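debug: dumping io for the single-chain case to check the tokenizer round-trip. Nothing else runs in this session.
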Amino acid sequence: MATLTLLFVRHGSKDRRGSRTRRGQEFARDHEAVANALGAVLDAHCARMKVRADAATPLSSDGRRASETLAVTLDRLDVHPDVVITSAFAHALETAECLGKSPVLADTLLPVKGVPLSLTEVSHRCPDEARTIVVVGHENRLSQLVAAATGERIRPLDALDVVCVTASGWPEVLRGQGELAWRYPVRAHQVKTLGTKLSSKMTVATFLAGFTFTALHQTVTTDGAFDVLIKLRNANLRNESVLEAILPALLCREALPLLASILLAVALVLFIGAVYIYDRLSMPAGFWNVSRAGRGWLGVRWGDELFQRDGPVYLHMVRAWSCVFTPAVCLAAAGLLLIAWSEGTWLLAALFVGIGVLTTLWCHWFQPRLGVD
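debug: decoded output
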């Protein structure tokens, strides 16, 4: 008997304007029966208005072109679907139609809370003679179906990602013994290799957080560390401006411990934040969050070109180093310098500054040049 091939495909990119476009309205008219059946399912599960609006959203023009390109790519990969099973959401249904077969609807693929997830329903929608089956749907349902078919968690699917699962037949798939054959497009992000780097960065950030906390505790518990606050509280602000009252108090030597405490406190928060970020990035790919409706943390979106090229782990690791870890090191160094200055150890402060400058110059001129990076 021929091998059973299951291809799980996430729908193409949606039109951000929703169903208000002319093409969206035409698509709704052409699929009025599907829309009515879908409306009954949404009513049965008390779906929210946001879900109902998303159900009627068609593909964007770029998403439709990419779906048609994917159909050509599958043909060149010698993949010829016998049946296409899809969600009834407009963008998933349109993606399935671009793959060249009259799609079959399956409620289990609907991203609606309360609809049970079932590989059995998918199998019941397929003719007995069908050996190549394409399943078009949404995340995180597709990832869960792949996990149910293979017994392994996978990285969430991006728009028009394809995951191929092979087995001798449906009994093997339903037992979770399918084999993950390939994934398209191929992205070698080397997530497992970066795990060692993340572990070392987390260790360094944890050590520096402990060191910074010790310095901060020593500073705030020193006698007279916050005398400048008493001066500010007792300052006469009736005959002089706030700036004229505060500046002399902050520029005096007694204010240095207070300023150092502020810098060390901010540095400590950033170091703890870096540890938390590196810990999240260490999460196995199968447990990543797939809710990405907007701009991600550190200012990047899941579908951005950098994400596709370098992968989310590497990109967020580098940005966390630039935006969180490095500022924390600079603030902690400035806080230690102020502490040395307040103690009157000018030689130690000068030595500290000299070491910092020499280290910066050395890192700039002698860092390894790794190709285009």
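debug: round-trip ok. The mean pLDDT is 81.
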